[in-house]
Design goal:
- The complex is a heterodimer of chains A (265) and B (327).
- Chain A has 13 helices and no strands.
- Chain A is mainly α and 265 residues long.
- Chain A has 2 domains: 69 residues, no CATH class; 154 residues, Orthogonal Bundle (MetI-like fold).
- Chain B has a two-stranded antiparallel sheet with strand order 1-2.
- In chain B, helix 15 packs antiparallel against helix 16.
- The relative contact order of chain B is 0.12.
- Classes of the chains: A mainly alpha (265), B mainly alpha (327).
C-alpha cells in the first residue's frame, strides 16, 4: 500500500511535469520551429528573449512593471483591511474584506469585461498603469488572506503585556504586530507577484492590444505558430515561481500558509 | 476581551491623543471604502447596466433599458417567429467541460493529497513548492505545452505512428472506436480538436488548485480514527469508505464546486482545443466585446448570465452544505 501511494505520487508528479518538460526542452531548438526532442540544441533563444528581440524584451518589462506594481499596491490595500478586520472585527471591515475578495472569487473573464468597460469610461483602457491597478484589485484577496493568517498567529497576551507596560497602540503596533507579520506580508506580496506575472484574461481585456505582457505576447503568437523563444519565456516564468515559493517555504511557513494542521509535525 | 478594548483603556489617560488620531482613521476608512466600491463593485455594476444597452448598426452601442439582449440569449433574436437555443447551448458547453474537468481533477488529486499529508513536514513543503509553481504557471504556457504534446505533427500522434502503435490499433480494430469518438482521422490518431484534449488541459489547469484546497482539510484528519477502525479489524478499503471519505465529504464537495466555477470562464484552452461547434460562453463573450462581432451589450449580457450561473451554483452548494451540517 505504501509503495502504491508513492507510485501514485510519482505518477502524478510525472504527468504534472510532462508539458512543462516538453516546453523547456523545446527552448533549446536552434531553428525557427518547435521540435521535440530539440534539434541542434543551442542557448541562442535565451539571448533573443532577454536582450535582442524588442518584442520580447518590451513584453518582459511590461510584465515586470505590472507584477511589481500590482503586488505593492495589493499589499498596501490589503494591510489596513486585514488589520481592521483583526483588531475591530467590525461589520464594515468584514464587508470591505468580502467585497475586496469578490473579483478573485468570480470567473475572471467577467471581472475582465467589467474592468474593460470601467477603464473605457475613465480613460485608462490600454494604459499600463490601469493594468497595474487591475491586477492589484484582482489579486488583493491573496495578501488579505496571508496577512490575516499572520495577524491571527500573534499571541494576544503579548499585546496585553505591551499595553500593561504603557505602550500606545502605535508602539505596540511597531514592536509587536509588525515584526510578527512581516513574513506573511512578504508571502502575500510574492503570491500576487507570481500570479500577476502569469495572469492572462483580465490583462487581455484591459490592455486593449495597446501593449503586451509576456502572457499576452505568447497568446498573440499562438496563431502564428510556436517559436522556441516562447519556450524561453515559459522557463523564465517557471524559474521565478519556483524561486519565489522556495523562498516562502524557506523563510515563511508554507504548510501553515496553505492551512496545514499546526499541532502535528 | 479584544485588543480594541485594551487600547481605549490605556488611551483614556491621554484624551488629547485620541482627538488627533480619530480623523486620520476616519479618512483612511473612507478612502478604503471608496477604493473598494469603485474598483471591486462598480465594474460589475457597469457590466449589468451595459447588458441592457443597445447596439447601433455601424456604430458602437448606446445606453438603453431593453431586455432584447436577454431575449436573444434565451430564445434568439428572431423570437417568436424563430427560436434558437444557440447561446444556451454555449452555456451548456461551459457547464459540460467545467463539470467533467473539475470532477476529474478532484478525484485524481484526492489520493495524491492524502499521501502528501502523511509525509514529513519538510518534504511536504518541497512538494508544495512544486505544486504552487505549477499552479501559478500561466494558462497560455500550459496550453502551449499540451498543444506541442497533442498536435498532429509532433507529440503523441507522431509517437503513436513511429512506434507502430497506430498500426497495432488498426490491426486489433480499436482504431474504429477512436474514430467514432473523434480521436482519430483516417490515417492516425488526432487529439486536436477534441473533447478529450479540452478536458485534459482544463483538468490539468486546476489540478494543483485541487491539491491546495484539499490540503487543509486532509491535514486535519485525525489519524487515530482510522487507526482505531483498523485495530478493530476493518479492511483498508472499509476504513476509507466508512471513516475517511465521510469526514471529508464537505471539503470534497466544496473544492469541486470552486474549481467548477473557476473553469466556467476558461478561455484559452477552449479556443485552442475545443471544436468550434462546442465553443463556450466565455469565447462568445470575447468575440462580442473585443473580437469579430463587436456587440458589447450582448457580450455584457452573456457575462451576466455566466455570473448568475456561477453564483447560483455557489449558493446551491452553500445551502447543501448547511443542510448536511444540520443532519
Amino acid at each position: 500500500m505504501r509503495i502504491f501511494g508513492a507510485f501514485y505520487m510519482g505518477l502524478s508528479a510525472l504527468l504534472l511535469a510532462l508539458p512543462i518538460v516538453v516546453v523547456c526542452a523545446a527552448a533549446l531548438n536552434s531553428g525557427r520551429s518547435m521540435f521535440f526532442p530539440p534539434q541542434d540544441p543551442t542557448l541562442a533563444r535565451f539571448g533573443e528573449f532577454f536582450v535582442s528581440e524588442p518584442v520580447w524584451t518590451n513584453a518582459l518589462w511590461n510584465s515586470i512593471i505590472v507584477a511589481v506594481g500590482a503586488a505593492t499596491l495589493a499589499v498596501l490595500m490589503a494591510w489596513p483591511i486585514a488589520y481592521l478586520l483583526w483588531s475591530t472585527g467590525s461589520k464594515l471591515s468584514k464587508t470591505l474584506a468580502g467585497l475586496g475578495s469578490l473579483p478573485f472569487a468570480v470567473p475572471p473573464i467577467v471581472f475582465g469585461v467589467g474592468l474593460g468597460f470601467f477603464w473605457a469610461f475613465t480613460g485608462g483602457l490600454g494604459a499600463l498603469w490601469a493594468g497595474v491597478i487591475s491586477h492589484a484589485i484582482l489579486l488583493m484577496a491573496l495578501p488579505l488572506v496571508t496577512i490575516s493568517i499572520g495577524l491571527q498567529s500573534i499571541d494576544r497576551s503579548h499585546l496585553d503585556a505591551a499595553a500593561t507596560m504603557g505602550a500606545t497602540e502605535q508602539v505596540a503596533f511597531k514592536t509587536v504586530v509588525l515584526p510578527q507579520t512581516v513574513p506573511y506580508t512578504i508571502s502575500g506580496f510574492f503570491f500576487v507577484l507570481v500570479l500577476s506575472f502569469n495572469e492572462f484574461i483580465v490583462i487581455f481585456f484591459v490592455s486593449a492590444s495597446s501593449y503586451a505582457t509576456v502572457t499576452l505576447q505568447i497568446f498573440n503568437s499562438l496563431r502564428n505558430g510556436y517559436t522556441p523563444t516562447m519556450a524561453v519565456a515559459a522557463i523564465t516564468f517557471l524559474a521565478v515561481s519556483v524561486l519565489v515559493f522556495s523562498a516562502i517555504a524557506r523563510w515563511g511557513d508554507l504548510p501553515r500558509l496553505m492551512g496545514a494542521d499546526q499541532s502535528r509535525k | 476581551m479584544t485588543i480594541a478594548d485594551d487600547i481605549s483603556v490605556s488611551r483614556a489617560d491621554r484624551p488629547e491623543r485620541r482627538v488627533s488620531t480619530l480623523p486620520a482613521k476616519t479618512i483612511l476608512l473612507g478612502l478604503l471604502t471608496s477604493i473598494i466600491v469603485v474598483f471591486c463593485v462598480l465594474p460589475f455594476l457597469l457590466v449589468l447596466a451595459i447588458s441592457f444597452g443597445r447596439k447601433v448598426d455601424g456604430a458602437a452601442w448606446v445606453w438603453d433599458f431593453t431586455f432584447d439582449n436577454y431575449q436573444r440569449f434565451f430564445v434568439g433574436v428572431l423570437w417568436p417567429d424563430e427560436v434558437t437555443f444557440l447561446y444556451l447551448q454555449q452555456l451548456g458547453f461551459s457547464f459540460y467541460f467545467a463539470v467533467i474537468a473539475s470532477l476529474l481533477a478532484v478525484l485524481t488529486a484526492l489520493p495524491f493529497t492524502l499521501q502528501l499529508t502523511r509525509l514529513k513536514r519538510t518534504s511536504q513543503a518541497m512538494w508544495l513548492v512544486f505544486i504552487m509553481a505549477s499552479l501559478s504557471l500561466s494558462e497560455v504556457f500550459i496550453v502551449m505545452g499540451w498543444d506541442i504534446l497533442l498536435s498532429n505533427n509532433s507529440g503523441l500522434p507522431k509517437l503513436f505512428k513511429e512506434t507502430g502503435l497506430t498500426q497495432w490499433l488498426k490491426d486489433v480494430g480499436w482504431f474504429q472506436h477512436l474514430r467514432d469518438w473523434g480521436l482519430a482521422n483516417p490515417r492516425n490518431v488526432k487529439f486536436k480538436t477534441s473533447d478529450f484534449a479540452t478536458i485534459l488541459t482544463m483538468s490539468y489547469l486546476v489540478w494543483p488548485y485541487a491539491v491546495i484546497l484539499l490540503y487543509p482539510a486532509l491535514s486535519r484528519l485525525d489519524p487515530s480514527l482510522s487507526e482505531a477502525a483498523r485495530t478493530m479489524g476493518a479492511s483498508r478499503w472499509t476504513v476509507t469508505r466508512t471513516v475517511t471519505l465521510p469526514s471529508i465529504r464537505l471539503p470534497l464537495f466544496g473544492t469541486t464546486l470552486l474549481l467548477f466555477v473557476f473553469l466556467l470562464g476558461t478561455y484559452v484552452s477552449i479556443t485552442v482545443f475545443a471544436a468550434p461547434n462546442k465553443h463556450t460562453t466565455a469565447v462568445a463573450i470575447y468575440s462580442n466585446i473585443r473580437g469579430a462581432n463587436l456587440n458589447a451589450p450582448f457580450g455584457a449580457t452573456q457575462a451576466i448570465m455566466l455570473l448568475i450561473s456561477a453564483s447560483a451554483c455557489l449558493y446551491l452548494g452553500h445551502v447543501f452544505n448547511r443542510r448536511s451540517e444540520v443532519r
